[in-house]
């Protein structure tokens, strides 16, 4: 999920184009991108589209961001979109394990009502200072949590924190990454608002990739190629990873645990990382 | 409170000059700047001055830093200075919510004894590693807490942590800022010891401002202008904020939630930030 | 303990050379550097060597890294090496205070069985995201804990976190340093895998030193001189510290608390730091 394209739920004319594009994941939004008077229509249009044959047959991760628990739209959103074909429900404004578990209770009821075959997994947004402090607690609270998504706009703007300060961005990214790692779930990077600043997008994506994030949210189709490039391993990284995997096989045959590759001492954690890189490259090849 | 000038309580000859200066806030110190044999005199002189007509009529935030709870001076400090006219009591060496609540009990008794009209709000120093770990817990513990102040000297020096390392400074600043944001209180930056290093002062002030701190402590009057400059919005920032506020009005009339200004997608958190910048500029104009 | 040289327990031919070298501390490893079929032999050889006269008479800090509690080797390691002459037991893969206390119970029993004169102190590795979140809780859990050691390989590699990103490294270092400071224990930096990259080693050592770490782990003898250099105070730092100590004596005679040295306001935390630097320089002179 290198690129996760944001698709406004109130603009169904964009759906087919998004599906035809290069994004690894599509995230249909029922929340902030949809004004109050369009909420009902948007959820019907999104539900219809994500249940359609072209989407079911596409190799895309299908995500729907629903409205917050206390928004007044949450239950109706669930009844509409907690359905087979949705890989991840994206939950905004979660600030505690307790709030998450309450939401999951509602999701279970909606899935039962809809006859969903398999529990839908959750992508939980971490987008307030309180949520950031509780991010690990939220991530470990329930096995439905598949990943955490960092939301820097909400985390920084109301508090006057400058997102152009890369140290600011890094500190928030690191905290969410460690919380996700504690729970063994993935972390995915949020949106980058400046549509004209490709270098800024790529810099932020590079930073999150170096922190082990799996991909970045795109709010415009032109950002998709940037994200796909940023989260792909370079040829050099791949070659180094392959040398480590090969050396590990030799070392194992010789009964040794640690060994040196390219002048670096390699032991188990390095080997696991190399194996993961090689496997990811094969998946996208 | 862009600039918060530190005024040693044992040097009453400096009080009038501080009052006449450009600092937004004056912080009279009864703690580290006052040797043991001057404590009694200093608290009388500070109480006298902050209760005087020139101070009451000045547009300054009046702060008094009192001695720590376990210092042996705390109760006498409170009886002397927990009085109308003091906007903020600055509490040093608080390390837990429990310690804060104990201090507040004493403050309430002193206010009752002094017939204080309105509870005095608190500026709590975060200046030890234990306090940093508990900063959010401290900030949310009581509605009297108005803000947190980062104290890097005490936080870093005893542990051999180099303050010239800007990554070190940023990590501590970010932690205190997030704790304050969790509680919805302000964060204000601490002192910068090197009186001859204006560039260093401004760099640190710039870093805390980009983290949404409201101002910086000055230990010499010459630092006041630097702080006032660092925490003022630039003309460019203000102009951008005004464009966002104007565009929001148009968008609202057209029933749209998110909109693009200067090539950036703007939604609610960005709008709130812009509105706050415009309001702050008007307050200082 | 500026330099802490890693000595594989399964390679006794290296022991005497390590002892003759310039490392302040020797860390004999029974864990990852020793394959399963060599575990029994390695612990005997290490126990024998660390109990020998040359080691007892050397001015080295003797450390043994034993296998993890749940490894199946832990009890046998303890019986072999929980003996007088070992200054620190290095515990890997501790993730909670509870796990630490369980390990200490076993250590106490082994010490009693071995008739150890004085409880052996512990160096606890912080090397997983869960451990990082609990590092302060671990450090304060028992007075046997002498220090925390950051293990970046295990902390970063399995999660795809790039260690060449210095912001990544700094964030983990800062977290461990603050946890150690909360407990009043030391922090020591972990290994640097790339044996051919002296500049990289020195950069990482410089970063941890500026965070108040006391030294760095070396996995090759050639890294020892780099570590010793990185953690020594410069002549300039020492001279400045001596000026502060001297000025403090004058100020004390004049009854003043804070004073200015080299243009910087100096108060108690700065003085303590200067005194520590002067004392450390005398210890290594």
Please describe the structure with a list of short key phrases separated by commas or semicolons:
alpha/beta; 2 domains; homotrimer; 285 residues; 13 helices; two-stranded antiparallel ribbon; TIM Barrel; eight-stranded parallel β-sheet
Notes on the structure:
- 3 copies of one chain form a homotrimer.
- The two termini of chain A are 14 Å apart.
- In chain A, the strands form 2 sheets. An 8-stranded parallel sheet of chain A has the order 7-6-5-4-3-2-1-8.
- Chain A folds into 2 domains: 3-230, Phosphoenolpyruvate-binding domains (TIM Barrel, Alpha-Beta Barrel), CATH 3.20.20.60; 235-283, no CATH class.
- In chain A, helix 2 packs parallel to helix 4 and helix 12 (235-253) crosses helix 13 (268-284).
- With 285 residues, the first copy, chain A, is α/β, with parallel strands linked by helices.
- Chain A has helices at 15-20, 39-50, 53-57, 74-81, 97-114, 129-133, 135-140, 152-156, 166-183, 198-210, 222-230, 235-253, 268-284, and strands spanning 3-8, 25-29, 61-65, 88-91, 121-126, 145-150, 186-188, 216-218, 259-261, 264-266.
- Chain A binds chain B through residues 32-35, 37, 129-130, 132-133, 153-154, 156-162, 164-165, 167-168, 171, 191, 193-197, 219, and chain B through 136, 166-167, 170-171, 174, 177-179, 181-182, 207, 210-212, 255-258, 260, 263-270, 272-273, 276-277.
């Amino acid at each position: 999920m290198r690129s996760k394209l944001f698709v406004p739920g109130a603009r169904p004319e964009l759906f087919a184009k998004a599906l035809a594009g290069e994004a690894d994941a599509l995230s249909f939004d029922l929340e902030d991108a949809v004004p109050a008077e369009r909420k009902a229509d948007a959820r019907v249009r999104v539900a219809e589209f994500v249940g359609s044959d072209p989407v079911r047959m596409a190799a895309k991760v299908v995500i729907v961001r629903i409205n917050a628990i206390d928004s007044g739209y949450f239950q109706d959103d669930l009844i509409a979109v907690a359905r087979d074909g949705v890989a991840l429900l994206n939950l905004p404004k979660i600030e505690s394990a307790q709030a998450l578990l309450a939401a999951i209770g509602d999701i279970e009821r909606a899935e039962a009502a809809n006859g969903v075959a398999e529990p839908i997994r959750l992508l939980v947004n971490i987008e307030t200072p309180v949520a950031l402090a509780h991010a690990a607690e939220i991530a470990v609270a329930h096995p439905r949590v598949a990943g955490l998504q960092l939301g820097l706009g909400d985390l920084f703007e109301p508090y006057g924190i400058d997102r152009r300060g890369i140290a600011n961005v890094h500190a928030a990214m690191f905290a969410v990454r460690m919380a996700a790692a504690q729970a063994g779930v993935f972390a995915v990077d949020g949106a980058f608002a400046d549509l004209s600043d490709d270098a800024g997008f790529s810099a932020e994506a590079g930073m999150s990739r170096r922190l082990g994030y799996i991909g970045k949210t795109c709010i415009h189709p032109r950002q998709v190629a940037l994200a796909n490039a940023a989260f792909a391993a370079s040829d050099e990284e791949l070659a180094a990873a392959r040398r480590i995997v090969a050396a590990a096989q030799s070392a194992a045959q010789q009964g040794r645990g640690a060994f040196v590759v390219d002048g670096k001492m390699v032991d188990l954690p390095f080997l696991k990382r190399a194996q993961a890189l090689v496997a990811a490259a094969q998946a996208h090849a």
